[in-house]
Model the fold of this input.
Amino acid sequence: MAGLTAMVSRFNKILIFLRLPFFLTGLAAFFAAERYFATEKFYPYLRYGGIGLLILGLLFTYIAALFAKRENFPSESRGWIYTSIWQIAILIGVALYIVYQRVLGNAPAPDKLITKALFAAHLLFSILGLFSAIGFEWAMRENGRGRLAEASRVMRAGLGYLAIGVLLAFFVTLNYSTEKRDRSFDWSYLKTSSPSEATYKMAGTLTDPLKVITFFPPGNEVYQQVDQYFSLLKAKEPRFEVTNYDKDLSPTKAEEYKVTRNGDVVLEVGTKRERIQVGLTLATARGVLKQFDTEFQRAFLALTAAKKTVYFSKGHGEMAWTGGDSEEAMKRTISILYAFLQNQNYSVRQFGLGEGSGRGVPDEATAVAIIGPTKPFLQEEIDVLKAYIEKGGKLLVMLDLEKPKEVGVGGEQNPPTDPLLNFLAEIGIEFNKTPLANDRNYVAITKTAVDHQFIFSNIFTSHESVTSLARHEEKIALLMWNSGYFRITPQLGLWRSFETVKTLPDTFVDANKNYSFDKDTEKRGTQTLGVAALFRKEVTKPEEKPPETPDKPDKKDEKKPDGKDEKKEEIEARVIAFASASAVSDILIRNPGNLLFASDAIKWLTGDNKITGNLTSEEDVKIQHTKKQDLVWFWGSVIAVPFLLIGTGFIATRRRKRRVDNIDKVQEDED
Done:
C-alpha cells in the first residue's frame, strides 16, 4: 500500500512538472500554425495538436488539485484551482480566435462589428491570461504547496498581475484607436482652434457652396490644427468644400489662387476670395491659431455679408480709438472694440460736426454709437439723431460719470440740460449719474475702499441683446467702473423699453460718494444698468406705378378713392443704453463678458443677432477676486486645509487602532 501511495505521489509530481511545458508548448504550436503554417498540409495537425496540449495542461492542473485534496492539503488544492484561471482564460481566447476566423471567412480584414468584437475579445483574454499567469505560477511555487500553502496569497498575486494585464490591454486598445483615427491635439490651442457657436450660426446662413483651399505639405503640424477646425465645420455644414494642396507639388493650383508659399488658407464663394495667412510652424503660427476662429469669421463675413457702417460720435469728450499704453489711458480708449468691429466686417467711421453731425446722419449709416461723452451735445446734433431715429435708425449710447482732467472744463458732469439725456428721457430712459457701489461683491484692484465702485454683474434678462450672456450667466460676468444707473418707463408713446442688465442685489447708490454703505441713508437693491428700447410705427408711402403697356392698360377701377396708389411700410428704430462706458474700454473689454456684451448689443442693433454666439478671446485675462473670494481663499488655506489634513490623519489612525484591537481580541479568543 505504501508503494502504491509512493507511485501515485511520483506520478502527481510528474504531472505537475509537465503541466506547464505541455500548456506553453500547445500555445506555441497553435500560434505557429495560425501565423506561419496556415497553408501547409500539416496545418490541421499542428493546430489541433496544440489545442490538445493546452487541454492536457489544464487537465494536469485539476489532477494536481484533486491529489492535494486527497492528501488533506485543502489550501494547496484551492491554489491549484486558482492557478487554472489563467489557463482557462487562454483557452477562451483560443476558442474566440477560432470563431473569429470562421466569421471572418475570406475577408482580408475585420470590417463588421461582430468580427471586430471577436478579434478584440480574443486579444483581451490572451493578454489577461498571460499576465495573470506570472502572478499565479510564481505565488504557487513560493507559497502554495504543502501544509503551509496560502491560497489567498496565490489569488492576490494573480489579481495583481491581472491588473498589469488590464493596463497593457488599455494601452493596446488606445494605440489601435489612435492608429485608426489619427488625430493630434495641442491643448494650448484646443479652446480657440474650435469653431465657436457664432461661427456655426454663420455657416448655417450659407446659400452658396464655400470652398476652403488650404496650402500645406502633408503631415504638417499646423495643417493638423487647421484641418481639425474645418473638419468640425464641414461635419455640420455640407456646403463646405475643403481641399488641401502642397504648393510645391501643385504649382498650377498655387498660381490659380495666387499663393506664393505654403501656410495660406483661401476661402472662395463664387468669384470672391479671402485669404488667411497662418504659417508653417507652430512657433510662427501661434498667434493666428489662437484667434483662428476670429480670423475665419472676418474672412467669412467679408465674403458673404454686406458691409455695414457704424458711425462713432466725436467732439464731446468721447472715448477715442487711439491712446497710450498706460492704465489711465486704456480707461478712455476703445481700440479693441474698433478692431473687433472691423474683424466682424463693419466699417467704422467718425461722426462729428466736421462730418455733418449738425446736418444729418449719412444714409449709409447702419448705426450710430456714442461712447462715454463728457461734454453736452448741441441741440442741433440731437435733432439730427431724432430725425435719424424716426426713419428707423439705430443708436448705441454708453454714458460715463468720470471726467478726465484733459477734457474737463469745470462744472457738473452731464448737466440736467444735456440734450442727449433729455432725448433718452423722452423715449423712457432716465439716467441717474449718482455712482453705484458694492462693498460685498466687487473687484479688488487697489485694495482700498475705492474698489467698491469696481462692480460686476451676472444678472441678465432674456432680451435678445444679451441672450449669450444670459445663457452663460454662471460662468461670465460684466465688469464696469464708476457706473450710474437708469430708471425706465416700460412704454412711452410708441417706445417700449426693456431692462437687459441689472446689478447684484447688494449694490447701493453711493449718494455721498464715500465708497461705503450708510445703512441710515442708503439702501441695497438691484439697479438697471442696461436698457434696450424699440420703436415701431407704420407709415404710408406713395407706391410707384409701373409704366403702362399696350397689352396691360392701366385699370381705373384699381385706383384708390383719392386717386393715389399707396403702400404701408413699418419703421423700426432701436436704441441700446448702458450706464457705464468703461465696460467697453480697452482695460475691461478683455474680459469675455464685456466683449460678448458689446458684440451682442451691436449685432442686435444692426439686425445681425441671428448669428450671435459665444466668442473666444486670445487675451490672457488677469484673475481678480472679490472680497468674499479673498476671504474664502485666505481662511481656506490658513484653517480649512490644515484641519482637513489633521481630520483625515485622525480618522486613519483611529481606524488602524481599531483594526489592531480587533486582531488582538481575535488572538485572545483563540488562545
